[in-house]
Design brief:
The complex is a heterodimer of chains A (63) and B (492).
Chain A lengths: L1 H16 L14 H31 L1
Chain B lengths: L2 H19 L8 H6 L6 H12 L2 H14 L10 H19 L5 H8 L3 H33 L6 H19 L1 H31 L2 H11 L13 H14 L4 H7 L5 H14 L1 H16 L11 H9 L2 H38 L5 H25 L3 H14 L2 H7 L8 H21 L3 H4 L5 H4 L3 H19 L5 H10 L3
Classes of the chains: A mainly alpha (63), B mainly alpha (492).
Chain lengths: 63, 492
Amino acid sequence: MKKWIALLTILPGIGSLTVVNKIEPYIFGLPFIVFWSTLWLILTSVCLLVCNVIYDRKEQNNE
Amino acid sequence: MNSSIFIIGLTLAFAIYLGIRARKGRDMKLEQWAVAERNFGSLIMFVLMAGEMFSTFVFLGASGGAYRMGGPTIYVFCALTYVIPFWILPPVWRYAKKNNLITQSDFFAQKYQSKNLGLLVAIIGVISMIPYIVLQLKGFQIIVSEASYGAIPPKIAVWIGLIAVTIFVYISGIHGSAWTAVLKDILMLTVILFLGFYLPYHYYGGIQPMFETLDKAKPGFLLMPDKGLSISWYVSISITIALGQYMWPHCFGASLSSKSETALRKNTAILPLYQIVLVFILFIGFTAVLKIPNLEGTASDLALFKIAKESLPTWFIGVIGSAGLLAALIPCSLLILTASTLLSKNIFKHFKPNTSDQKLAKLTRIFVPIIALISLFFTFYGGNTMIALLTMAYSFVLQLFPPLAFSLLKRNPISKIGASAGMIVGVAIVAYQTLEGTTMATMFPSAPHFIQDLDIGVVAITVNTVIMLAFSLFTKKVSVIQEDHISQASNL
């Protein structure tokens, strides 16, 4: 279980370091390179929040 | 007096009021003054952590960067920056709480059972923080004189700003920074979101048309080039920032004031979302590229103000100025607070170990105006070398990462000698490289581009780690009692 949670946070790390170096296609008015790096900001937040919820639940169980 | 100056003055007065009021009903012992007795909840931690990140660099530097560098500027919002603290801050916080530690230097000294190592860390920290404060003050100069349309002379502006910060740091400590950070965040968010939407629509009729026009006028500007600011550069600078960000003593220190681990984790999880603000700042810089051409070198940092002045009324420039002013002062207050705590608790006390706690608390606050004055001196007489020094400082604090990361392991393979040797070598490499003006490209002229484009911080931290491990093989590890602490602290 613990390993899977770690994966959730490593994934965005790798994702945010991968750069898709092209302009087309535009998504939401952003060149693809800008869209891609913005997308990972959102995905990272989601992953970390999920992670945090799992941790909190685990802590409560332990108490 | 125009409406812009009036608004800036009002904001500054309100910030000072909030800063002083924050003290109300608190007895300012050192632990209260520096880390608020570890009692900050989620919301206030959020503005505090965001407060130290979103400084004048973001305001002037990121928009100027987009103007100057184009596409590669996306490095300013790499999400990886918050994945690292998500893992390291909770165990650090837990350990600090258990052992009543209030500074980064305390943490190293305790983990490695070595006061000398603590001293080394404190010295690296203070040396790195001074250029950071100076940069904030330089930004403050630009912001106030631009926003007042030149009516307030830069030198007077810096004096006023610095006195304001000194007063509320002296009186309220970290509480002052936290409360003014709330005001700052509201103002900055409003201003940046507005400008980021308004300017592209005003000049180009939308965000996509803005990018399309820019791409047509300057093909390749929005992409990473094959060499120089290449993908390899992007990856290495992102790693430098991600590992180094929370090694800044003020970021490290502020995170200790959290009430709980959950508050810390929740905040590092939300901060990437908050970074979307930076995307909007890039829009501002990109809009300026074709509309305000010919800003060269450091003048490109004026991109935001130049383009705003072209299209917006005076009073709104005042609002932008107010947001910028707070963006300089809040990080400044945290930096000064941390630097004075390090100076008194970890440097002064190291040489005079029998100083009483009461005297130490008093001394820390006396260091506040002293550091303010030193920074002021460098702001006026340091010239532009300070900017080069800041780049160096970023790579300096990065060298603290390996010994910290290893100390969180259940069984720390690193000895105090190994940790010190690694850090000293890492810092020396960075210092040599900065002072001699060499880069990876000049040192290894025949190496492939992806190696030449590497950020020096990554190179130094690698050498640092190797040296640290090598020295640790032959020297004594931290005692067994210590390991007991470690295993509890890293038990995630």
